[in-house]
């Protein structure tokens, strides 16, 4: 039976493990190996009347809570925003569907503000402006690349297979550099085709939807049966 290399940092790590254990209970262990950190820049505020657009729950956690309308990229981010007081609507888990949902919705009085990390693939504010909406962006947090802890290094040097969930192209590229000399068989589970392409090698599975629940569904057979590709 393979083990899980838990590639998420902070509170996202336990959430990932819970999602995977719900669908693949068993004797596998979770080895912490956070790939990307979370560092709020501090001092970022959402101006009164602006409608924040959160493409990550980290963005929600990087600004004070509010009470007005907001958007979250998917159900989890919107849920975190609601817990912070925002009246949040949600997209389908990726930036393209989020922008499409905002453009379909009735226009709101205030301008949109994309609360983003320093490293972001989608230019959400530019896409909204292209759709005729007033929009700007603010960098509210940084995402430093992290080195694997010693326990993860030992697992990568070992012979036991590892199921490795990768949730962003940047994380995938970083792990590809880290795992170049790995001895353990690696069963990569990618959140999307873009993530799989950034990994640059065969993957064991790709999630049907860019959501943690779908990623867990893709990984569950690997944790139970251990089949996959390196």
From TrEMBL:
* Top-level taxon of the source organism: Bacteria
> Could you tell me which SUPFAM superfamilies the record lists for this protein?
HemD-like
| BP terms from Gene Ontology | tetrapyrrole biosynthetic process
Q: Which InterPro entries has this protein been placed in?
A: 4pyrrol_syn_uPrphyn_synt_sf, 4pyrrol_synth_uPrphyn_synth
Record's Gene3D superfamilies? 3.40.50.10090
Coiled-coil ranges (or none): none
**CDD domains associated with the record:** HemD (cd06578)
Q: Boundaries of each Tetrapyrrole biosynthesis uroporphyrinogen III synthase domain copy?
A: 26-216
Give a GO molecular function annotation for the protein.
uroporphyrinogen-III synthase activity
Can you say what this protein is called? Answer: Uroporphyrinogen-III synthase
- What are the top taxonomic ranks of the organism? Bacteria, Pseudomonadati, Pseudomonadota, Alphaproteobacteria, Rhodobacterales
């Amino acid at each position: 039976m393979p083990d899980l290399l838990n590639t998420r940092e902070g509170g996202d790590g336990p959430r990932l493990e819970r999602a995977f254990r719900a669908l693949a209970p068993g004797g596998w262990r979770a080895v912490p190996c956070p790939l990307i950190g979370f560092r709020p820049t501090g001092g970022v505020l959402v101006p009164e009347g602006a409608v924040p657009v959160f493409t990550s729950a980290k963005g929600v956690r990087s600004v004070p809570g509010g009470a007005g309308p907001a958007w979250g990229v998917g159900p989890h981010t919107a849920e975190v925003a609601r817990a912070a007081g925002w009246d949040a609507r949600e997209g389908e888990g990726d930036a393209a569907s989020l922008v499409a949902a905002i453009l379909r919705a009735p226009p709101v009085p205030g301008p949109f503000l994309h609360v983003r990390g320093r490293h972001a693939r989608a230019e959400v504010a530019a896409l909204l402006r292209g759709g005729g909406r007033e929009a700007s962006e603010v960098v509210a947090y940084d995402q430093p690349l992290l080195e694997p802890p010693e326990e993860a290094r030992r697992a990568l040097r070992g012979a036991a297979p590892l199921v490795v969930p990768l949730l962003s192209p940047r994380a995938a590229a970083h792990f590809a550099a880290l795992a170049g000399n790995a001895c353990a068989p690696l069963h990569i589970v990618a959140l999307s085709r873009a993530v799989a392409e950034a990994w640059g090698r065969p993957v064991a599975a790709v999630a049907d939807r860019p959501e943690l629940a779908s990623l867990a569904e893709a990984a569950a057979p690997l944790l139970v049966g251990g089949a996959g590709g390196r």
